[in-house]
TrEMBL record, chain A:
The keyword Manganese does not apply. Pfam families: Sigma70_r2, Sigma70_r4_2. SMART domains: HTH_LUXR. This is Sigma-70 family RNA polymerase sigma factor. The keyword Chaperone does not apply. It comes from the Bacteria. InterPro entries: RNA_pol_sigma-70-like, RNA_pol_sigma-70_dom, RNA_pol_sigma70_r2, RNA_pol_sigma70_r4_t2, RNA_pol_sigma_r2, RNA_pol_sigma_r3/r4-like, Tscrpt_reg_LuxR_C, WH-like_DNA-bd_sf. CDD domains: Sigma70_r4.
Automatic annotation (TrEMBL), chain B:
The keyword Transmembrane applies. This is Uncharacterized protein. It comes from Actinomadura alba. The chain crosses the membrane at residues 54-75. Keywords: Membrane, Transmembrane, Transmembrane helix.
């Protein structure tokens, strides 16, 4: 893959990948690191990167592993990340919303990622299978279990009717990768 | 349970794609790309198709599934190619018309461009997010750039047709495209097909319009303040466009800075869906409004 082709893939996948990272990172700084590392890996392994829409899924798969590596290191800097989140928050979520978010955060990484790929990235089971490198049947089964575990965890916390939309959002207008 | 849980999780997203103002061609995006591509050079493709010499007319090569088959005349003074095929794409030239068949439009874009390049044609196949209902369909076909060597006297013309067979659930989506005329030979071709947009991802075909073109939203004629209140009430965000269109569809529009807001008493003249979470609102430009950036 030449530089021009790579630039095309970069242009097509930049925002989806940034969104993927921002939704999973505690700060724009961490998200920028994930995006930069993911594209750097993609450039080094351009020969393996599929073309077109598949490239986005392939990059999600790379970003997932970059993020996992980052989290292993990030645990040593929890205070710094928490402070950045606090700076970026535009209004604290409601009590129930916060509880739902906490329960979601406590789910196993694999459950959380599956649920997020559906709800945040809007991927189908087939697309998730490409990201995770497994069959769509496996995705279907794991997703079913993840949803059940989430519902059980919500009920255990006394949340039977969680609000359909949670308004916990972050201000990112100034978060360019500069 | 499924949709309710998915909605609940969707609501937990701290960032929607529409919130992200950084673009690949912004200063940050460009700097990152430059930093990456000046790094370690990419490893050559492991399973690259063998580079075959041009063959004598009529000869074929079928050594491997990935091998390319080229039909033309060899040597330095080669005649134009008449056909080309690789594992993903087949092109036939009939007079001034190019006919191409792609096995899977959503997977073979690179081979598609490479195949056309064999004929000196600059053709790009793009996959873009589109509004619901436009997925798996051809969004547009047009020239890719200005005619090479400048616009010939009398202009250029071209014909195109495309068929994309891609019902929901089908994994491989064959695409047939016919391109004819000087327009595409000199200006290349940009073939755009739609995919499902991610939540909040702006649709490629979200163009400014006059009147109400957003589902269930009747805001044309209302004030900016009223429109924003209604948009907010529905949990959506709004992006403004300055412009004016006539009844025949002619007119112009441009995007002011993202943070710009018109005065609350001004009237909305157009409303359209930009993404699953945002709408576009148009107002007629007034003195003092942001001006369009000159192009070129």
């Amino acid at each position: 893959m030449g530089e021009d082709e790579f630039a095309d893939v970069y242009a097509a996948t930049y925002k989806p990948l940034l969104g993927y990272a921002l939704r999973r990172c505690g700060s724009p700084e961490d998200a920028a690191d994930v995006v930069a590392e993911t594209f750097a890996i993609a450039w080094r392994r351009a020969a393996e990167m599929p073309a077109g829409g598949e490239a986005r899924l392939w990059l999600y798969g790379v970003a997932r592993r970059v993020l996992a590596n980052q989290r292993r290191g990030a645990r040593r800097h929890t205070m710094k990340t928490a402070a950045l989140i606090a700076e970026l928050a535009v209004g604290a979520p409601s009590q129930e919303d916060s509880a739902v978010a906490e329960i979601f955060d406590r789910l196993p990484d694999r459950d959380r990622e599956l649920l997020a790929l559906v709800a945040w990235e809007g991927l189908s089971n087939t697309e998730i299978a490409t990201v995770l490198g497994c069959s769509s049947n496996t995705v279907s089964v794991r997703l079913h279990r993840a949803r059940k575990r989430f519902v059980r965890a919500l009920r255990s916390a006394g949340i039977d009717h969680p609000a359909a939309a949670v308004q916990a959002r972050t201000v990112l207008q100034g978060s360019e990768l500069t | 349970m499924t949709s309710r849980i998915d909605e609940l999780v969707a609501g937990l997203a701290t960032v929607r794609d529409s919130d992200i103002t950084s673009e690949p061609d912004s200063a940050g995006g460009r700097a990152l790309l430059a930093a990456i591509t000046t790094g370690k050079a990419p490893v050559p493709r492991r399973h690259r198709y063998p580079r075959l010499p041009w063959l004598v007319a009529g000869a074929t090569v079928a050594s491997a599934a990935a091998a390319a088959v080229v039909v033309g005349v060899g040597g330095q003074n080669s005649a134009p190619l008449r056909s080309y095929a690789n594992a993903a794409v087949a092109i036939d030239v009939k007079g001034t018309e190019y006919e191409v068949e792609v096995k899977n439009a959503y997977a073979d874009q690179r081979e598609f461009s490479e195949a056309f390049a064999k004929f000196g044609l600059d053709v790009r196949l793009r996959i873009v997010p589109v509004a619901p209902g436009g997925e798996r369909e051809i969004v547009q076909i047009g020239p890719l750039h200005a005619p090479k060597g400048g616009m010939p006297p009398g202009g250029v013309s071209g014909t195109s047709s495309a068929v994309l067979k891609c019902p929901p659930g089908q994994i491989a989506c064959p695409l047939k495209v016919r391109l004819g005329g000087e327009m595409f030979r000199l200006g290349g071709a940009d073939i755009v097909i739609g995919r499902k947009a991610a939540p909040g991802e702006v649709y490629f075909d979200a163009n400014p319009v006059q009147g109400d073109r957003a589902k269930d939203l009747r805001l044309t004629g209302r004030t900016v303040a009223q429109a924003l209140a209604e948009v907010l009430r529905r949990g959506l965000t709004a992006t403004f466009t300055l412009g004016e269109f006539k009844a025949d569809g002619s007119g112009s529009s441009w995007d002011p800075p993202a943070t710009w807001r018109p005065a609350g008493e001004r009237r909305i003249t157009g409303v359209w869906t930009r993404s699953s979470t945002s709408v576009g609102l148009m107002v007629v430009p007034q003195k003092g409004d942001p001006q369009p950036h000159p192009v070129g």
